[in-house]
Design brief:
It is built from four helices and four strands, in the order E-H-E-E-H-E-H-H. A hairpin with a 2-residue loop joins strand 2 and strand 3. Helices cover about 35% and strands about 15% of the residues.
Protein backbone atom coordinates (compact mmCIF):
# COMPACT_ATOMS: atom_id res chain seq x y z
CA UNK A 1 0.00 0.00 0.00
CA UNK A 2 1.43 3.42 -0.92
CA UNK A 3 2.00 6.17 1.62
CA UNK A 4 -0.06 9.27 0.86
CA UNK A 5 -1.19 12.50 2.49
CA UNK A 6 -3.18 14.34 -0.17
CA UNK A 7 -5.63 16.86 1.26
CA UNK A 8 -7.97 18.90 -0.93
CA UNK A 9 -10.30 21.72 0.01
CA UNK A 10 -13.18 21.31 -2.44
CA UNK A 11 -15.92 23.82 -3.14
CA UNK A 12 -18.88 23.62 -5.50
CA UNK A 13 -22.20 25.39 -5.80
CA UNK A 14 -25.80 24.60 -6.59
CA UNK A 15 -26.94 25.32 -10.13
CA UNK A 16 -27.51 29.06 -10.60
CA UNK A 17 -26.57 29.50 -6.94
CA UNK A 18 -30.11 28.56 -5.94
CA UNK A 19 -30.70 28.27 -2.18
CA UNK A 20 -31.30 24.52 -2.18
CA UNK A 21 -29.26 23.52 0.88
CA UNK A 22 -31.93 24.44 3.38
CA UNK A 23 -32.17 22.99 6.93
CA UNK A 24 -34.16 19.88 5.91
CA UNK A 25 -31.73 19.13 3.07
CA UNK A 26 -28.38 19.93 4.68
CA UNK A 27 -28.03 16.93 7.00
CA UNK A 28 -29.13 14.24 4.52
CA UNK A 29 -26.96 15.84 1.82
CA UNK A 30 -23.83 15.97 3.98
CA UNK A 31 -24.47 12.46 5.29
CA UNK A 32 -24.82 11.11 1.74
CA UNK A 33 -21.66 12.87 0.53
CA UNK A 34 -19.75 11.25 3.42
CA UNK A 35 -21.31 7.86 2.58
CA UNK A 36 -20.45 8.08 -1.13
CA UNK A 37 -16.91 9.24 -0.38
CA UNK A 38 -16.39 6.30 1.99
CA UNK A 39 -17.53 3.89 -0.75
CA UNK A 40 -14.67 5.23 -2.89
CA UNK A 41 -12.11 5.09 -0.09
CA UNK A 42 -12.04 8.90 0.13
CA UNK A 43 -11.74 10.29 3.65
CA UNK A 44 -13.96 13.30 4.44
CA UNK A 45 -12.35 15.28 7.22
CA UNK A 46 -14.91 18.11 7.16
CA UNK A 47 -18.05 19.10 5.30
CA UNK A 48 -19.94 22.36 5.59
CA UNK A 49 -21.47 25.07 3.51
CA UNK A 50 -24.16 27.62 3.00
CA UNK A 51 -27.52 27.69 1.22
CA UNK A 52 -25.92 27.60 -2.23
CA UNK A 53 -22.58 25.77 -1.93
CA UNK A 54 -20.58 23.14 -0.05
CA UNK A 55 -17.01 22.94 1.19
CA UNK A 56 -15.23 19.69 1.90
CA UNK A 57 -11.79 18.77 3.13
CA UNK A 58 -10.99 15.35 1.75
CA UNK A 59 -8.05 13.02 1.57
CA UNK A 60 -8.04 11.24 -1.76
CA UNK A 61 -6.07 8.04 -2.39
CA UNK A 62 -3.63 8.41 -5.32
CA UNK A 63 -5.47 5.72 -7.30
CA UNK A 64 -8.32 8.22 -7.87
CA UNK A 65 -8.29 11.22 -10.18
CA UNK A 66 -9.62 14.22 -8.27
CA UNK A 67 -11.97 15.20 -11.12
CA UNK A 68 -13.51 11.72 -11.03
CA UNK A 69 -14.02 11.88 -7.26
CA UNK A 70 -15.70 15.29 -7.47
CA UNK A 71 -17.84 14.20 -10.43
CA UNK A 72 -19.04 11.10 -8.61
CA UNK A 73 -19.75 12.99 -5.38
CA UNK A 74 -21.68 15.70 -7.17
CA UNK A 75 -23.61 13.35 -9.44
CA UNK A 76 -24.49 10.79 -6.79
CA UNK A 77 -25.50 13.40 -4.20
CA UNK A 78 -27.76 15.28 -6.64
CA UNK A 79 -29.34 11.99 -7.69
CA UNK A 80 -29.92 11.02 -4.06
CA UNK A 81 -31.46 14.38 -3.14
CA UNK A 82 -33.90 14.03 -6.05
CA UNK A 83 -34.59 10.37 -5.20
CA UNK A 84 -35.56 11.07 -1.59
CA UNK A 85 -37.71 13.98 -2.82
CA UNK A 86 -37.25 16.41 0.08
CA UNK A 87 -37.39 19.54 -2.09
CA UNK A 88 -40.22 21.02 -4.12
CA UNK A 89 -37.84 21.46 -7.05
CA UNK A 90 -35.07 19.60 -8.89
CA UNK A 91 -31.71 19.51 -7.06
CA UNK A 92 -28.60 20.01 -9.20
CA UNK A 93 -25.06 21.30 -8.94
CA UNK A 94 -23.24 23.75 -11.19
CA UNK A 95 -20.76 22.27 -13.67
CA UNK A 96 -17.56 23.61 -12.13
CA UNK A 97 -15.79 23.20 -8.81
CA UNK A 98 -12.82 24.58 -6.92
CA UNK A 99 -9.99 22.46 -5.58
CA UNK A 100 -7.12 23.66 -3.43
CA UNK A 101 -4.38 21.44 -2.10
CA UNK A 102 -3.32 21.81 1.50
CA UNK A 103 -0.73 20.18 3.68
CA UNK A 104 -0.72 18.73 7.16
CA UNK A 105 0.01 22.16 8.69
CA UNK A 106 -3.03 23.78 7.04
CA UNK A 107 -5.39 20.89 7.76
CA UNK A 108 -6.75 22.13 11.11
CA UNK A 109 -7.31 25.65 9.75
CA UNK A 110 -9.19 24.27 6.72
CA UNK A 111 -11.34 22.03 8.94
CA UNK A 112 -12.22 24.96 11.22
CA UNK A 113 -13.12 27.16 8.23
CA UNK A 114 -15.34 24.47 6.70
CA UNK A 115 -17.07 23.51 9.94
CA UNK A 116 -17.83 27.18 10.68
CA UNK A 117 -19.29 28.06 7.26
CA UNK A 118 -22.64 29.15 8.64
CA UNK A 119 -21.04 31.48 11.20
CA UNK A 120 -18.68 32.92 8.57
CA UNK A 121 -21.54 33.67 6.19
CA UNK A 122 -23.78 35.15 8.89
CA UNK A 123 -20.96 37.37 10.21
CA UNK A 124 -19.58 38.07 6.72
CA UNK A 125 -16.14 36.78 7.71
CA UNK A 126 -15.75 34.42 4.76
CA UNK A 127 -12.49 34.14 2.89
CA UNK A 128 -13.38 35.77 -0.45
CA UNK A 129 -10.68 33.76 -2.21
CA UNK A 130 -12.38 30.50 -1.20
CA UNK A 131 -15.89 31.80 -1.87
CA UNK A 132 -15.10 33.07 -5.38
CA UNK A 133 -17.81 32.83 -7.98
CA UNK A 134 -17.94 34.24 -11.49
CA UNK A 135 -19.64 33.34 -14.74
CA UNK A 136 -16.29 32.03 -16.01
CA UNK A 137 -16.34 29.38 -13.26
CA UNK A 138 -18.98 27.53 -15.26
CA UNK A 139 -16.64 26.66 -18.14
CA UNK A 140 -17.39 27.14 -21.82
CA UNK A 141 -20.92 27.83 -22.99
CA UNK A 142 -20.94 24.91 -25.45
CA UNK A 143 -19.83 21.40 -24.47
CA UNK A 144 -18.87 20.60 -28.08
CA UNK A 145 -16.02 23.12 -28.10
CA UNK A 146 -12.64 21.46 -28.28
CA UNK A 147 -9.38 23.24 -27.65
CA UNK A 148 -6.75 23.08 -30.36
CA UNK A 149 -4.05 20.51 -29.84
CA UNK A 150 -0.89 22.18 -28.58
CA UNK A 151 2.17 21.85 -30.74
CA UNK A 152 5.04 19.92 -29.24
CA UNK A 153 8.44 21.51 -29.41
CA UNK A 154 11.81 19.90 -28.86
CA UNK A 155 13.31 23.27 -27.97
CA UNK A 156 15.20 23.25 -24.68
CA UNK A 157 14.44 25.98 -22.16
CA UNK A 158 16.66 26.77 -19.19
CA UNK A 159 15.08 27.88 -15.96
CA UNK A 160 16.77 30.18 -13.53
CA UNK A 161 15.79 30.88 -9.96
CA UNK A 162 16.80 34.51 -10.44
CA UNK A 163 14.50 37.10 -11.98
CA UNK A 164 10.99 36.38 -13.24
CA UNK A 165 9.72 32.83 -13.22
CA UNK A 166 8.93 31.44 -16.68
CA UNK A 167 5.51 30.17 -15.59
Amino acid sequence: MPFWRLYYHLVWATKNREHLIVPGVKDPLYRYIRHKAAEMGVHVLAVGGWFDHVHLLVSVPPRHALADVVGRLKGASAHEMNRIDILDCHFSWQRGYGALGCGQKQKSTAIAYIENQERHHKQQTTNSWLEHYAASDEGPERADLVAEKPSISEESVEYSLEGDFPF
